[in-house]
Amino acid sequence: MYFQLALRNLKRNGIRSSLAIIGIIIGVMAVASIGIFSANLKMSVLSNFQNVTDEVLIYPAYTTHFRHGLVVSSGIMYISKRTADRIVRLPYVKNYAFVKSSFTTARYRDEVFGTTVYGMKEKAVNRMFKPSSGVIRLSDSCVVGYDLADRLNLRVGSRIEIKGHNLRVSAILKETGARFDVNPNNAIIVSLRDYDRIFNTKGNGYNFIIVWVNSLKDVGLFKEAVDKTINEKEKKVDVFELKIIIDQINKSFNFISSFLMAIAGISLLVAGVSILNIMLMSTLERTKEIGVMMAIGAYRSTILKLFLLEALILGIIGSVIGAFMSIIGGYAVDMLILHSAKYLFSITTFEYMLEGIFFGLLTTILSGFYPAWKASRLEPLEALRYE
Amino acid sequence: MKKVVELIDVKKVYRIGNEEVYAVNGITMSVEKGEFLCIMGASGSGKTTLLSLIGCLDKPTSGKVIIDGIDTSELSDKGLTDVRRNKLGFVFQQYHLIPTLTAFENVELAMLIKGVPKKERERKVMELLEIMGIANAADRKPSELSGGMQQRVAIARALANDPEILLCDEPTGNLDTKSGEIVMNLIKEQNERGVTVVLVTHDPDIAKYAERVVRIRDGRIIAEGLEAIY
What we know:
The complex is a heterodimer.
Chain A: H1 2-12, H2 14-47, E1 55-60, E2 62-67, E3 70-76, H3 81-88, E4 93-108, E5 111-120, H4 122-128, E6 131-134, E7 141-144, H5 146-152, E8 159-162, E9 165-173, E10 187-191, H6 192-199, E11 208-213, H7 218-229, E12 237-241, H8 242-285, H9 287-295, H10 300-338, H11 347-376, H12 380-385
Parallel strand pairs in A: 5-10, 7-9
Antiparallel strand pairs in A: 1-11, 1-12, 2-3, 4-5, 4-8, 4-11, 6-9, 7-10, 8-9
Chain B: E1 3-16, E2 19-32, E3 36-40, H1 47-54, E4 62-67, E5 70-71, H2 77-87, E6 88-91, H3 103-114, H4 118-131, H5 147-159, E7 165-169, H6 177-192, E8 196-201, H7 204-207, E9 212-217, E10 220-224
Parallel strand pairs in B: 3-8, 3-9, 6-7, 7-8
Antiparallel strand pairs in B: 1-2, 1-4, 4-5, 9-10
Helix pairs in contact in B: 3-4, 3-5, 4-5, 5-6
């Protein structure tokens, strides 16, 4: 019956209660919609990075070589074959790819163009990329990236000349998103054997190694293993976890998202003030009733609960409607900025809806508390005599 | 006879600006169980303040108010509420019903506050509304009831928790003679069933329902007994 009483008190000033609810709806909708949009934006950005979190890149460390106390060479060298073999035999390694790369000029028909050339094993290329046409084969042939093929009008069977070596295009790769390891879109991939022939690098070692570990938690363990074995005497390689980049992107987006939501939260604050206002008016108007309830034996805590319940009802109605309407809001912002709503129906949307409800309820409870407390502190006799 | 209300040198002082006004100025009196006491006096005599002190709605500046053996001057806020809820029933001149609740619910509210189970509440509310002769108006809101009916709902509410003492503040003050008579007969009936009644009025005709009358002026008792009516 307390619930009914609270509900009827709210109905007594239907328009006022409705306005307060609308305030909460707008506030919750703003907060949740912005949250949903930020999450979708993040998902859309991260999808470009594909699933690289279990990937580790190993580069040669910056080394300085001395002879008789004098520097004879310094700079980024290669990862020697011996070191490379030791690295890929370490525990936690699920898969790996040795990569050699350099930037050079190549020729197709009469056109000379600059391009990155990667030397890799056929198996590794097959594992990492999918062809949009042709079959990935690297013996005396090469594969080219989507953008390069598009620009030069390359087809399967076209022949490219790199430093006097003629290679047949066996496949054109599908377009990929931004990557940190091998970016094939504007590149040519050849076998390691051909690479060494073209660049005369036989015996030089690798420019970098890509290692896939068994699971995400193995990334740290693998890094430790490298430091303990390979880098024990001198630092031979640097280990670069792609997870860190994703973590950084996540962190930045979470920051942006919190910031945007805080701005949207101002509307919730305004809604809170409106609840504070109507509840205070209600307390004033119902002073006599409060006095009657106290006279017939209601504790102060009962009065407090009744008024809080009223605020809570406004909050629940407003927050739930607002949360559902935030799907519409999120859709609108997604379409406006991302031109796609494909990430809308995900678990994060649901999470932000819940978050919106939480903040909506928190606002109403906080703003409902003071009027409720004020009502509960009235003196029964004075309340009864109030005109 | 057992005393259900005992006042010992009770004073209530209000401060208006720099001036101290004694609304109740050293009243000592008692009410026995089952008695019908009428407190009479002109407006401003302090009779309503006295009723508020007996009703634990206010605390005396000095002196003791003992309700059914409990010294209320030592009670906390919650303790006073417990006395009101368990021992007292109030009937006000303005009825003071909750406008959003029906007659039934207004009576039920008193029991709800006390935590009486739903079934028991429903049974008791209907019983009381029948005694008050307004069972057919159970679903109506106060605004749909006449003054006399509203006051009968208020009496039913006051009786809901089986109070020891019924405190009535000018219960017929807003009613026409006929409705006033009905209300007074109902109160008298309750008194005959054993409920102690303390009633405040300035109307001699109403005072005639009482067994004992106390007349107050300037916060003091100036006459006692039936002759105090006039």
